[in-house]
Amino acid sequence: FQVPIGTKQVEARVSRSCLPGGDVPLYLIEQDAYFDRDALYRENDEDYKDNCERFTFFSRAVLELARRLNHPVDVIHCNDWQTGLIPALLKIEHDSGDSPLARTASLLTIHNMAYQGKFWHWDMILTGLDWKYFNWRQMEFFGELNLLKTGIVFADAVNTVSQRYAEEIQSDPHGCGLEGALRQRSDVLT
Fold first, then answer.
1. Domain range spanning residue 94?
2. Tens of pLDDT, residues 57-98
3. Separation of alpha carbons 151 and 55, rounded Å
4. Which of 1, 181, 151 is nearest to 80 (CA)?
């Protein structure tokens, strides 16, 4: 299937398998131009220049795959900034009653606040979302697009690696600048 990224369409391929020793389905999203690389996020001590595009593609592909499944999806579990766009896309594009994902909840797990997925503000175009969401309360952080903040703001629930870490990141310096957003969501943060 095709995935919209900014003004272009990018092909996603899906492979299906099962977890070993069971019948739990496992879906793998493929796009060699984005993910057939020697490293996951960076090379030679520099982030890949297209990381925002890569993980916008992945987030949109996950939701398109979930939409195409023949059964309800209760929760999408997102991990860190790489999937921080998914909760926003669910709330903004799939919240109406006619979407098969309208009742799908999102959970964002944060492992390390230092990695936030901060990008040039013009990368907002890649997300396909309206510029009205690029504001200090939602997706913007000091003039940049911040995908971890986006996930924190839009997720139905946010959790961390431990209760202690959940408490620590609500204050400086452990919140890495996002402690205010985390305190705003303290009712859903564990």
1. 2-188
2. 999 999 999 999 978 899 999 999 999 999 999 999 998 878
3. 13
4. 151
